């Protein structure tokens, strides 16, 4: 029982960052109808920015997370303005090819700048874990979970309670009608891509100190983000949140009770089964209303 509780606790903590990845991607797809192949590289960008601020510059750990997320927001805004805005109205094949090209360019740039050597990020928290009965958790992972949950809540409040969020939901429902009502679609798209990119960078900044950072770290993160979005239902923010936790639980249970080599495979096997039963995902709606 203690082992099961330990795996459940690990999955709960990891699920928060997975949810951040999924929410960022589903926002971009739901509002912009863009398949963002650079999402994993934005995750890697956040991890490398965390390494730069903490290990090279010596900035405060918490401040470094905020700076990494802010830089991810700026990079996302730049990608939308320089690439996607010029492709507005282009067919999906063209947009996908451009985003794939941007993904490859970003990954090669990371390898050129940071080399292929894996890098670790020091944590300011004590190495001794927090022990609660028969389970334990490192202070770093606990901090990551708290920050991830706070970012998820902040994103929900932004979408539901702000003027920008109202414009995003209106664009999500009907882009043409929103434009007729005075919504600046270009600005909404830029804000959406920037927010989604910032969430991906935040996930990378949070998990960078937990694992190691290397140029291709974004590849698996991108696959997991797409899996989470498909699992939860395309365009569903609650679905992406729950999907992130489901994927984390399946990975932990697979690693603990089958084999650590099947850690990533278990989550994707579950997704295959779910899609065979419910092709639209668990939480997709007949009409997308944000």
Automatic annotation (TrEMBL):
It comes from the Bacteria. Keywords: Amino-acid transport, Cell membrane, Membrane, Transmembrane, Transmembrane helix, Transport. It comes from Rhodoplanes azumiensis. Belongs to the binding-protein-dependent transport system permease family. LivHM subfamily. It is found in: Cell membrane. It is a multi-pass membrane protein. Its main location: membrane. The chain crosses the membrane at residues 12-32, 52-77, 89-106, 139-159, 191-214, 226-250, 262-284. This is Branched-chain amino acid ABC transporter permease.
């Amino acid at each position: 029982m203690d082992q099961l509780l330990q795996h459940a606790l690990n999955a709960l903590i990891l699920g928060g960052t997975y949810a951040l990845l999924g929410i960022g991607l589903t926002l971009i797809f739901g509002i912009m109808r863009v398949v963002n192949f650079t999402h994993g590289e934005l995750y890697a960008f956040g991890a490398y920015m965390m390494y730069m601020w903490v290990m090279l510059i010596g900035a405060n750990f918490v401040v470094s997370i905020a700076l990494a997320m802010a830089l991810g927001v700026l990079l996302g805004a730049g990608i939308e303005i320089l690439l996607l805005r010029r492709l507005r109205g282009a067919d999906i094949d063209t947009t996908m090819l451009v985003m794939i090209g941007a993904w490859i360019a970003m990954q090669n740039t990371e390898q050129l700048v940071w080399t292929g050597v894996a890098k670790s990020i020091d944590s300011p928290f004590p190495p001794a874990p927090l022990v609660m009965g028969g389970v334990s958790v490192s202070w770093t992972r606990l901090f990551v979970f708290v920050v991830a949950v706070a970012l998820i809540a902040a994103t929900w409040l932004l979408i539901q309670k702000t003027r920008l969020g109202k414009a995003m939901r209106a664009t999500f429902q009907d882009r043409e009608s929103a434009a007729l009502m005075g919504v600046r679609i270009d600005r909404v798209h830029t804000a959406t891509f920037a927010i989604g990119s910032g969430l991906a960078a935040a996930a990378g900044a949070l998990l960078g100190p937990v694992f190691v950072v290397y140029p291709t770290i974004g590849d698996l993160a991108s696959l997991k983000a797409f899996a989470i979005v498909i699992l939860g239902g395309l365009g569903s923010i609650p679905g992406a949140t729950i999907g992130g936790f489901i994927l984390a639980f399946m990975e932990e249970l697979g690693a603990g009770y089958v084999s650590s080599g099947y850690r990533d495979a278990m989550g994707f096997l579950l997704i295959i089964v779910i899609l065979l039963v419910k092709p639209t995902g668990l939480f997709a709606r007949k009409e997308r209303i944000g």
